[in-house]
Amino acid sequence: MPFRLRDSLTGRVKVLAPQPGRPFSMYVCGPTVYDAAHVGHASTYLFFDVLRRTLEYRGVRVRHVMNITDYEEKISLRAKSLGLSWEALARRETARFHRDLAGIRVLKPHAEPKASAFVEPMIEVGKRLARTSGLVERADSRVWVPPPPTHRNFPVGDELTEHLVPEPGVAPPGSEAAREIVVWRREVPPMPVWPSPWGPGAPGWHLECYAMASRLLGTPVDLTGGGIDLLFPHHYAGNEIALALDGSLFARQFLHLGFVTQLHRKMSKSRGNLVPLGQATEMYGADALRWFLLGRPYNSRLEWVPADVSRAAEEWRAVRESLRSALSPGAGGTVPAEEFTGLGESVASTVEDGFRVNVALDRLRSLARRIDTAPRGRPPRGSGNRAREAYRAAERVLGLQIL
User: Alpha-carbon distance 53 to 393, whole Å?
Assistant: First the structure.
């Protein structure tokens, strides 16, 4: 069935589909690599992982790009505190990020551009923006002010307050400065510095994703997104740049995901309010983390409570044990074959119908209960191989390891 998903820009449900003759283009906002990834990051990447897996399961060619922000003030400040160069810290944390995502079976992107390698393209984007309406000089930067707002972009009023994580230098929604987009920041070593028409410094963060996506995928991309906190100012800014330079949206579809919270506050590196992903994977295991983090609607918040995670881990072990027991050697069982053979299709079609990953997990729970309560909890004789194939299909979509 077509993959139907609510677009967070328009609020309308749209069908995900590649453009004719091209792979489905998916641009996912990646990490700023100054410290360890946490389980809030993992939640975001897991949902995009299931989305990609489902498309590929259906035979759709996907081109998945995820950026790495490897220079930024936070990186430089942390590197200085550790006695490292910003380049060395970024390399170290990028490698750790790769290990952590591999540890929970997130598929590798097809391309993973680094911001430091895209400075020249970002300068070109800045020049093009300057030609549209000029740049405004501030004390330490050059900024671009988009045209008056239209219905084609996200609103930037007080309604965004719920989603924001306050950051230094980010103007509050509703203020005059909220819509300004930094094109260039004046910097001096040991901060990252490159030459430009505006003097030595570094490009503003919001130019990064547009420069990468337009070069590597072409805009508008079919799908982009991240956590709900990226809606403003980051995705708002990228959309304004695309509207000004291309006359089109940055993406045909936007997907924004709910926070993982701890003590009812969003996990955040800058706040120090987080659970490192590597530590959580070591404690609970990849499957248990996927089971817990994917177990709620994609756009809702999830509170990280260790006791809840432990219960999820125990539930997953019980479900997997039941599913595996059905394929153990023995006489034919009393569970109808179609309850096994339809599992892969049921899981995939549930994900496609509004991205209901949590309901897709319920399909596994339901089959496990059926196995546990049947007089002989196995498929009928002769259907074991087809049941195994259905398990493999569910594994491909959800990234879980059943067998």
Answer: 10
How crowded is residue 382: how many other Cβ atoms within 10 Å of its Cβ? 9
The set of residues, in sequence order, having a beta carbon less than 8 Å from that of 264 and lying 6+ positions away, is 303
At 150, the pLDDT band (50, 70, 90 cuts) reads confident
- In Å, how far from its chain's centre is CA 119? 23
Number of domains observed in the structure of the chain: 2
Regarding whether 333 and 252 lie in a shared domain, the answer is no
On whether the CB atoms of residues 206 and 237 are closer than 8 A, the answer is yes
Cross-strand partners of 254: 224
300 in any annotated domain: no
Question: For 188-243, how does the pLDDT look when each residue is reduced to its tens digit (9 = 90+)?
Answer: 988 999 999 999 999 999 999 999 999 999 999 999 999 998 998 899 999 999 99
61: its two tokens: 């060619």
Q: Give the integer Cα–Cα distance in Å for 275 and 256.
A: 21
Whole domain around residue 172: which residue ranges?
3-279
**How distant, in Å, are the alpha carbons of 122, 229, 320 from that of 189?**
20, 30, 54
Q: What pTM was estimated for this model as a whole?
A: 0.95
